[in-house]
Amino acid sequence: MKKKIYLIVTLSLWLSLTACGGQAGVPAVSPLTVEQLKNAEYQSEFPASGKAKLTDGAYEEEIVPGSATKLIIELSDQYAIGDLNGDGTDDAVAILVADPGGSGTFYHLAAVINQNGTPKHTATEFLGDRVQLKSVSIESGEIAVEMTKHGPDDPMCCPTLEVTQKYKLEGDTLVQFGSDNP
C-alpha cells in the first residue's frame, strides 16, 4: 500500500512540474509579447548613443540639438515569434524602420532573444532602403523575410524584385544562408 501511495504522489508531482515548466526547479518562461517588442531597447547605428529605447513602438531624437529634423525609428507591424537559439523558448524577430531625416527609409531585421521573459536585442541585419515588406516568419530556427527590393534598374521609389531572404541566428549574428533572388 505504501508503494502505491508513493507512486501516486510521485506521478502527481511529475505531472504538476511538467505542466508548469517542463523540468523540476525550472519555471516556465513567459513568451515575448508585441507590447514588449514595442517597448524594448534596440542597438542602432542611427542614435547618438547607439541605442534606441522604443516607447509604444517608436523612438525619436533630434538630428542636431535644436534641429527641427528628427531621427525616427519605428517597429514595423511585421514580426514573428519562434525559437531562434534552440533553447526551447520562443524568441522573436522584428522589423525596425529608421528615418534619419533624409530621403531614405532603412529597414533592419532585429533578432530578439527571450531572456527569462524579457526581450534582449541580440543581432541586426540590414534589409534595404525603401524596400516593401510582405512577411517575416520563423520556422525551425530559420527566419524568412519576403519583400520587394530594388532590381538593378529600379528607381529608389519603386522596387520590383520579389525575394525571400533566409537567415539563421549564429551566436550574436544574423547570417543569411539562402535567398530565392533571381
Characterize the structure shown.
- It is a single chain.
- The chain has helices at 2-19, 34-38; strands spanning 41-43, 51-53, 58-62, 70-82, 91-99, 106-115, 118-129, 132-139, 142-149, 161-170, 173-179.
- Helix content is 13%, strand content 48%.
- The strands form 3 sheets. Strands 3-4-5-6-7 form a 5-stranded antiparallel β-sheet. It has a 4-stranded antiparallel β-sheet with strand order 8-9-10-11, with no helix packed on it.
- It is mainly beta and 182 residues long.
- The chain has one domain (29-63, 70-179).
Helix content: 10-25%
Structural class: mainly beta
Number of strands: 11
What is the string of helix and strand elements? Answer: HHEEEEEEEEEEE
Please indicate the percent range of residues in DSSP E strands (runs of 2 or more).
over 45%
The poorly predicted ranges are: 2-26
| Main sheet overview | 5 strands, antiparallel
Q: How many structurally independent domains?
A: 1
What is the straight-line distance between the termini? 71 Å
What does the overall shape look like?
flat
Number of helices: 2
